[in-house]
Amino acid sequence: MRRSRNNRRTAEHKQQYTVAAEWSAADLALLEELKRAEDLLPANAPRALLSVRLSILTEDTTSPVRQELDLRFLARERGYRVVGVASDLNVSATKVPPWKRKQLGDWLNNRAPEFDILLFWKLDRFVRRLSDLSTMIDWCLKYQKNLVSKHDSIDLTTTIGKIIVTLVGGMAEIEAANTSTRVTSLWDYAKTQADWLVGKPAYGYETFEDEDGRVRLRIDRTAHRALHWCRRAALRGISARRMTIVLKRAGLVGDGLTTSTLLRRLRNPALMGYRVEEDRKAGIRRSKLLLGQDGKPIRVADPVFTEEEFNDLQAALDRRSKNQPTRTPDGATSFLGVLVCVDCGTNMTVHKTTTKGKEYSYLRCRQCPSGGRGAPNPEAIYQRLIDDVLTVLGDEPVQTREYVKGDEARKQLKRLESSISYYMRELEPGGRFQKTRFTREQAEATLDKLIAELEQIDPASAEDRWVKVANGKTFRQHWEEGGMQAMAEDLLRVGIKCEVARTKIPRMRAPKIHMKLSIPKDVRDRLLIKEDDFADRF
Fold it and tell me: Which Gene3D superfamilies does the UniProt entry name for this protein (predicted)?
């Protein structure tokens, strides 16, 4: 029986990490010893959450196993009970702040009542930006948590601890900034070179080492075959969607290729053998040529297409392109992710077409032939969805999640339990209240009163917890104030879907539209609005 439990614990810890992390027999034995020590701690021992993070696991880095064991040793020394391990591996502390990491972020955003102290191995294992550290200090002060590091003098319960944590965080940010500067400089230098120094080559090319050991680019034969077939197909007027299907069937590309990805590949000027970079101002994902000091494009490989062939391909693609809605910050399609096709399950998106000089907008899916005949008049579809949602959920009260501390209730419980123990002890034979009948009766009456007060206190109120608080509004009022976008965000957050079905009507271009609202059973719990403590952080 003992062996089975140990095996389960071993499996649990191996599954805990997102990259390979080897637990040796000695490590597992030590882990069991530390857990047995935890079992001896009092019930009210401070609860510790261990944060384990690693960017890349190499021989020179401290393994996640070593980090966890070191932190468990620290917890034992200080009398903390370990309630969980948040391991986020292959995660950069510079790019991903604590509240956005998969495991630690869940603890910070949803499980704050379950721990009192956040332990981490070293400050740079936790954060590398001073702004992130400042945010975490503010969060800990708000929720009465403490930050403790194995290798840094960090303790938020003291003034000097707050000063030290800020200074050390500043040094970590400087180091991260220096690293970022070096990487940026490398990329800037690489962009000006004909050699391929760093990065993934564009589709159509692969890297190889020449006789001098220098990394170069050469044409990928399979991709060359696929690209030239696509060019000939485009000149014949074949759509990109049809090209994607044929390429998949021929095995020239992977099954995950989409029409959008294929079009980006075909429009990439890198296919002429030039160096390119992402064009961030185009509003769509495109690449643009990089020019050298002589003002000419930088050639890094033999061309897949000559300039004439590439220009002919672009002209052919332009002839079949449609004037789709301009991208906006909120997207061209309202309720994106909520409206889905009943047949293929993909999202319905707004598209435009022009017939006899007149422009039409309609909703279509991605998988069904011809968009499943589409759904004309998107605004009418939106209004029908709004009416259905308001009918079902409009009168539901808006509730927010608030964090309630159990300090006062804990103090009250402790006072009552201490007083009850005192009266019970003194009412025993030989106690001070047994000297006269009057003192005994008075003490018994007081004891009954204290016990009654203790019974009236809900044990849950002594715990830090999340509670639901109504703000006096209904969701109908909330959505009327926030508009269509507010409703779309809530429906997407809750997981509500609306299936759109289309029935063809003889001799009519527009099909008949049917809509079915799918609402999760726990929709009321999901509608709970949770304040995001990190919403305004960058």
Answer: Putative Large Serine Recombinase, Chain B, Domain 2, Resolvase, N-terminal catalytic domain
pLDDT of residue 458: 86
Residues in the chain: 538
Rounded (5°) CA angle 400-528-472: 50
Question: For residues 68 and 54, what is the distance between their CA atoms, to the nearest angstrom?
Answer: 12
Judged on CB neighbours under 10 Å (0-12, 13-18, 19+), 264 is middle
At residue 120, the 3 state secondary structure works out as strand
Give pTM, 2 decimals.
Answer: 0.63
Mapped to the 3 state alphabet, what secondary structure does 385-421 carry?
Answer: HHHHHHHHHCCCEEEEEEEECCHHHHHHHHHHHHHHH
Given a contact cutoff of 8 angstroms between Cβ atoms, the answer to whether 96 and 26 are in contact is: no
Q: In this predicted model, what pLDDT tens digit does every residue of 74-115 receive, in sequence order?
A: 999 999 999 999 998 888 888 899 999 999 999 999 999 999
Strand-pair category, 286-289 with 349-355: unpaired
Query: Please, which residues have CB within 8 angstroms of residue 452's CB and are 6 or more apart in sequence?
Result: none
Structural fold of domain 205-320: Hect, E3 ligase catalytic domain fold (3.90.1750)
* Structure confidence at residue 10 (pLDDT): 45
- Helix or strand or coil: residue 371? helix
CB contact at 8 A, 198 and 190: yes
Q: List pLDDT tens digits, range 482-507.
A: 888 899 999 999 999 999 988 877 77
* Separation CA 20–CA 59 (nearest Å): 13
CATH code linked to domain 2-178: 3.40.50.1390
CA-based nearest residue to 330, from 476, 491, 488, 538: 488
* E-state strands within 382-520: 397-404, 465-474, 497-503, 512-518
Q: Where are the beta strands (DSSP E) in 202-241?
A: 205-209, 215-219
Q: Are 405 and 467 in contact (CB under 8 A)?
A: no
CA torsion, points 289, 295, 298, 304, in degrees to nearest 10? 60
* Tokens read off for 118: 């956040």
Measure CA of the first residue to CA of the last residue in the chain; give whole Å.
Answer: 50
| Structural Rg of the chain based on CA atoms | 32
Annotate 336-358 with DSSP letters as a single string: TTTEEETTT-PBPEEEEEEETTE
